[in-house]
Design goal:
It contains 7 helices and 3 strands; from the N terminus they run H-H-E-E-E-H-H-H-H-H. The protein has a domain of 144 residues. The longest helix has 45 residues. Strand 1 and strand 2 form a beta hairpin. Helix 1 packs antiparallel against helix 2 and helix 5 packs across helix 7. Helices cover 61% and strands 7% of the residues. With 216 residues, it is mainly alpha-helical. It is a single-pass membrane protein.
C-alpha cells in the first residue's frame, strides 16, 4: 500500500513537471506508443484479476482458520476428554475408559448417556460433573427426566489441583501464552460457561483455577 502511494505521488509530480516545463507532449507520444501493447495485454490482465481475487480470498480464509485453530478448550477427567469451542460454545468429547471407551459423546444414545453417567457417579465425581455439564449444554433439562440417580454435587470438592499443562488446555492456550492472552481466554470462556448463563458451577470453577494457576 505504501509503495502504491509513493508511485502515485511520483506520477503526479512527473505530470506537474512536464506541464511546467512544456514537455507534456512527450508524455502524449509515449502513451501513443504504449497503447498497442496495452491493448494486447489488457485481455490477459483481465483474466488474471479473478484469479488474484480468489487467491486473496483463500489466503484470508486460511489465515482466519489458522488464528482460530487453537480457540478450543480441553478438559480431561478419568473417564472423559471434553472439548469446548470458544466461538460457538459447542461441547463434545470422547470416552476414555469403560464400556463406551473410544466413543464420541455425540454418538451415544440417550440410554447410553445414562449408563455412562451412572458409571461416572460411582467411580469418579469429576467425570460425572463434566458429563452432566455436557448433557445440560446439549439437551437442557430434558435428559433429567430419564435420570433416576441423584444429581452430582457441582462443587469443586474432590477435584485435584491443576498442572500448568492442564490449565493451558482448559483455557485453550499454548504453553508460554502471555498474561493478556490468559486474561482474554478466561473472560471469553466465563462469558459462555458462567452458571448465571446456563453454564456449570464446577466447570466455571475449573476455568477460574486455570487462570489462577497461570497468573500466580
Amino acid at each position: 500500500m505504501a509503495l502504491a502511494k509513493l508511485i502515485l505521488v511520483m506520477l503526479i509530480l512527473g505530470l506537474v513537471y512536464l506541464s511546467i516545463s512544456g514537455r507534456l507532449h512527450i508524455l502524449g507520444a509515449l502513451l501513443a506508443l504504449a497503447l498497442p501493447f496495452v491493448q494486447r495485454l489488457l485481455p490477459f490482465i483481465l483474466r488474471l484479476l479473478p484469479v488474484a481475487r480468489l487467491f486473496k480470498q483463500r489466503k484470508s480464509a486460511t489465515g482466519q482458520n489458522s488464528s482460530n485453530s487453537g480457540n478450543r478448550s480441553r478438559v480431561s477427567t478419568a473417564f472423559l476428554e471434553m472439548t469446548l469451542d470458544h466461538d460457538t460454545g459447542v461441547m463434545d468429547g470422547t470416552v476414555l475408559q469403560g464400556e463406551f471407551q473410544g466413543r464420541s459423546l455425540s454418538d451415544l444414545s440417550e440410554s447410553e448417556y445414562i449408563q455412562l453417567l451412572k458409571t461416572c457417579r460411582s467411580q469418579d465425581g469429576d467425570s460425572a460433573r463434566l458429563l452432566e455439564t455436557y448433557l445440560d449444554k446439549r439437551f437442557g433439562e430434558s435428559w433429567r427426566a430419564d435420570d433416576t440417580g441423584p444429581a452430582t454435587d457441582q462443587s469443586t470438592e474432590g477435584s485435584g489441583e491443576l498442572t500448568r499443562q492442564e490449565a493451558y488446555a482448559i483455557l485453550g492456550l499454548e504453553p508460554g501464552a502471555s498474561h493478556d492472552e490468559i486474561i482474554q481466554a478466561h473472560r471469553r470462556l466465563m462469558q459462555k460457561m458462567h452458571p448465571d448463563r446456563g453454564g456449570s458451577t464446577w466447570l466455571a470453577a475449573r476455568i477460574n483455577e486455570a487462570k489462577k494457576c497461570l497468573t500466580s
